[in-house]
Amino acid sequence: MRLSQFHLATVKEVPADAEIASHRLMLRAGMIRKLASGLYTWTPLGLRVLRKVENVVREEMNRAGAIELLMPAVQPKELWEETGRWEKFGGQLLKIRDRKDQEFCFGPTHEEVITDFARNELKSYKQLPVNFYQIQTKFRDEIRPRFGVMRAREFLMKDAYSFHLSPESLGDTYGAMYQAYSRIFERLGLSFRAVQADTGAIGGNASHEFQVLADSGEDAIAFSDDSDYAANIEKAEALAPAIQRPAPQAPLKRVDTPRQKTIAEVSAFLGVSPQQCIKTLLLRGREGLVALCLRGDHELNEVKAGKLAELADEPVLATEEEILAATGTRPGFIGPVGLPETIPVIVDRSAAVLADFVCGGNADGTHYTGANWERDARTTRVDDIRQVVEGDPSPDGHGTLRLARGIEVGHIFQLGQKYAQALGATVLDDQGKAQVMLMGCYGIGVSRIVAAAIEQSHDEAGIIWPETMSPWRVAVCVINPKNLPDVRDAAENLYRKLEERGIETVLDDRGLRPGQMFADLELIGVPHRVVVSERGLAAGTLEYRRRSESENRAITEDELFTL
Ligand code: ATP
Ligand code: MG
Ligand code: MG
Ligand code: MG
């Protein structure tokens, strides 16, 4: 690729909401452009990297015997009603209508569609086991899209679904996927851990997440260096009771605060409907503004948790006991101090309170300050439990536990019969009897991996790509191509030779000053850079710099070809 004929558009300034390195660097390098919240265009540069990841994933899925297909992004409501998820999935499900007023969703995942496919396609046990996958765009209306493509609303996922007659067969494919995932992340040069994850509401036997180790990760994992024990924090909590010790609670102080607002008062104050009001409050709760609960004699009592579930993204309302334990008072309203009108927000576990919140009952003078929850449960909890857990014996008895933050880049799951049962996906067994199939599902966040790799590998100058992910392997820089035809011809020549050898090369023939040219190439992270200059031509060498090193050295063409 000649850079003069490519669309490279690096930028100096990035918006303040780009909080983490990968988000900033992807914007600065011009890999992505924001269209709207959680929606990004992948520029030609960004797409080169995304395709690299996609190809590694595809190669390893094929190697593991999975078969590629492609399912629609838009999915009919009726299918989701068969599994009950039209209602249950929550606010992440983007619901849309066509011109005939038929309802659809933009798929956040594809269990329904693949199981429908399977119930039509698979008739006999002889067709099993089979593992279908696709690499496809998902949409999840994330409550808080952030960190660029790391937590986007539209993102690229590889999702695979396997079908079986027996748990043993499911176990085998699960194991093969575990191996394939390990190979994928190794090939992509990521430092990662496979951790046990909770199977939660879905049930089933096994689930593992693949977590890239990075301080900016939203997840936390506990692991032992002396054994294979590794679990995400939710799972580790269940296994290691020590982790469940509650965070220390600051003493509560009684304050003389007037009765706080009812939902009717708040909705009048904000000028929006009560429904909209509750929705807003829920959102703000997610953002850490926190908290009210459904108790006492105000009108919110009428809003039952079930109703709230329709409005919120998997709301987990705190129970009365939890509120009591955390605040020392029976739940009424809890609201942040300092707002002119205290705005009630629903308590949920992922958005519990920091210090200095008022809590209390519905009568004047029954409020307290100092209610001390956590703002971002995952984040704060890691620090709280670090002291408690680190150094504790590993639950498997080998070595001691350590804690780290992680970015979830993959997730594999033994689903069992949940979806096949709901959708009636059966095959005939060798006795001619209809049997409900067992399923596994296996996801990889293809676009998230790009950001995760940058989190793991960058410096002040920019991205440092692992070789397998880089947009190009080698950059050939031409100094002053306009005025020095010999230099230009030599660079063109070298560029051609590299390409002939199958080494993906970018020729920087834009005629920029060396400083500008190098800054761009360092920012976009090309692993190997050579400079063709008058001086080098005379000496028969190239000035070479590895992106991960800080010194130049002179090398010959042949040395370059064998890098
Ligand atoms: P998270 O816990 O980060 O919300 P998840 O557990 O909801 O992720 P899965 O349903 O397991 O995600 O989906 C499979 C993979 O898709 C995840 O492991 C992750 O890599 C990726 N993924 C999920 N949500 C997003 C998102 N909003 N943006 C980018 N990638 C995502
Ligand atoms: Mg999620
Ligand atoms: Mg997750
Ligand atoms: Mg997951």
From TrEMBL:
Its EC number is 6.1.1.15. Pfam families: HGTP_anticodon, tRNA-synt_2b, tRNA_edit. It comes from the Bacteria. It is an enzyme of class 6 (ligase). Coiled coil: none annotated. Its main location: cytoplasm. It catalyses: tRNA(Pro) + L-proline + ATP = L-prolyl-tRNA(Pro) + AMP + diphosphate. PROSITE patterns: AA_TRNA_LIGASE_II (PS50862). One of its GO terms (molecular function) is proline-tRNA ligase activity. Residues 5-466 form the Aminoacyl-transfer RNA synthetases class-II family profile domain. Keywords: Aminoacyl-tRNA synthetase, ATP-binding, Cytoplasm, Ligase, Nucleotide-binding, Protein biosynthesis. Signal peptide: none annotated. It is found in: Cytoplasm. InterPro entries: aa-tRNA-synt_IIb, aa-tRNA-synth_II, aa-tRNA-synth_II/BPL/LPL, Anticodon-bd, Anticodon-bd_dom_sf, Pro-tRNA-ligase_IIa, Pro-tRNA-synth_IIa_bac-type, Pro-tRNA-Synthase_IIa_type1. Gene3D superfamilies: Anticodon-binding domain, Bira Bifunctional Protein, Domain 2, YbaK/aminoacyl-tRNA synthetase-associated domain. Consists of three domains: the N-terminal catalytic domain, the editing domain and the C-terminal anticodon-binding domain. Catalyzes the attachment of proline to tRNA(Pro) in a two-step reaction: proline is first activated by ATP to form Pro-AMP and then transferred to the acceptor end of tRNA(Pro). As ProRS can inadvertently accommodate and process non-cognate amino acids such as alanine and cysteine, to avoid such errors it has two additional distinct editing activities against alanine. One activity is designated as 'pretransfer' editing and involves the tRNA(Pro)-independent hydrolysis of activated Ala-AMP. Belongs to the class-II aminoacyl-tRNA synthetase family. ProS type 1 subfamily. This is Proline--tRNA ligase. The lineage of its organism: Bacteria, Pseudomonadati, Pseudomonadota, Gammaproteobacteria, Lysobacterales.
